[in-house]
Amino acid sequence: MDVAQATNYIALAIPIFFLLIGIELLIGKLKETKLYRFNDAVTNISCGIGQQIIGVFSKTILIIGYLYLYEHHRLFTIEHTWFNAFLLFIGVDFFYYWFHRLAHEVSFMWGSHVVHHQSEEYNLSVALRQGWIQAFFSTSFYLPLAFLGFHPVAFVVINQLQTLYQFWIHTKTIDKLPAPFEYVMNTPSHHRVHHGVNPKYIDRNHGGTLIIFDRIFGTFQAEEEEVVYGITTQPKSWNPLWLNLDYWADMFRNVKRATKWSDKIKILIKEPGWKPAELGGPIEGQPVTPQTFKKYDTTIPNGLNYYILFQYLVIMLSTTLFLFGSSKLDFLPKLAAGALILFSLVNLGGLFEAKRWVWYAEHLRLLLITLLGALLLGSVMSSIPIILLGLAFMGLSIIWLNQYRSIFTKTITSLI
Ligand SMILES: [Zn+2]
Ligand SMILES: [Zn+2]
């Protein structure tokens, strides 16, 4: 049973994601409201690309437990019928609710999910902003479904549909929907609350597709005052790798500093931000309004933003080729290509922040991308035009980047 070969509907939906993001941008323009910031949107999408790249390597490992339970210990063999698919959908949503709720209420689990909440904007690109190793925490929550006898392929497909549903609810452009729909389903209004940093909105509305589990288990909150988006402790970075590690780094620093063993354990398992009195006590959410909340932002010259956009288009094209073609690659070229895409995402984050290290890292990346591109594409088509194209890409990129050399040489900062 090769579940890893089950269709990746999320990769197939990429053009639809970008079409809808385009429509949302257009609505923002027509309504004259700024729904997107370039650095924030690129970071959101970078987190999504990174999650998909890591998924290529980890999905086989992640499903092992489900396969084992299904093959050796299932109670029933549940047939493929529409009704059973509906039951499975409810089951996936139920266990998602509990994973998601605990990911908000238990500190070390929050570290895997926090990435999704770091954006201080609310638009469709936020839906793509996902933690790179969240799946390592969420997968075990679904094991009861294997034990009951839901087929692994059916689980993988329904799980993806549940994720896809959550795309369209990340928007400010859709107001409250008719009451019966709002009562049962997770909607843009309910999910805006979930992304709120306003004290009354924190840790509310954990549902995936349905909102009924929040109503049943007491975590529902309707959208009332205007939502301020983000988290209580701003990570202040556009680097997707650092954004995935920032919370854990802080948490383990506190574990190290705490003197009592009981406090060290509490820092890991109590609510996010909990600290013993000796380290300053728990971080409390402060009242916020959109007028007083200061969003994290950085400014670089427009030409450098266009450089990032150009490189990003190349990365997105490479990612699409990688997601659809990686199964044909041997392990080492696959690893090299995946690592180079992740390296590229880190560099673009560093460019937004004009970090000194990125000046050197970006030249190295341009060289590596040209070499690897020639090696991988040269094996499927005539290599001379590919090499020429690669050299032209590298030359143009270096000339473009060097227009802004002074920005990088002025900043002296640490590696991250
Ligand atoms: Zn959440
Ligand atoms: Zn969300």
SSE topology:
Blueprint lengths: L8 H4 L1 H18 L6 H36 L8 H24 L1 H7 L10 H5 L5 H5 L4 H6 L3 H14 L13 H6 L3 H7 L17 H6 L22 H18 L3 H9 L32 H24 L5 H22 L3 H23 L4 H20 L2 H6 L6
Bound molecules: zinc ion (2 copies).
Structural commentary:
With about 425 residues, the protein is an all-alpha fold. It has 2 domains: about 5-215, no CATH class; about 300-410, no CATH class. The protein is built from 19 helices and no strands. The protein has helices at about 10, 15-30, 40-75, 80-105, 105-115, 125-130, 135-140, 145-150, 150-165, 180-185, 190-195, 210-215, 240-255, 260-270, 300-325, 330-350, 355-380, 385-400, 405-410. Helix 3 runs parallel beside helix 15, helix 4 (about 80-105) crosses helix 9 (about 150-165) and helix 13 (about 240-255) packs antiparallel against helix 14 (about 260-270). The structure holds zinc ion (ZN) (2 copies). The site of one zinc ion has 6 residues, from helix 4.
- Hetero groups bound? zinc ion
Biggest beta sheet summary? none
Runs with pLDDT <50, length 5+?
412-416
Derived structural class: mainly alpha
Count all strands and give the number. 0
The arrangement of helices and strands along the chain is HHHHHHHHHHHHHHHHHHH
Q: How many helical elements? A: 19
Shape: globular
Distance between the termini: 43 Å
* Fraction of residues in β-strands: under 5%
Mean pLDDT: 93
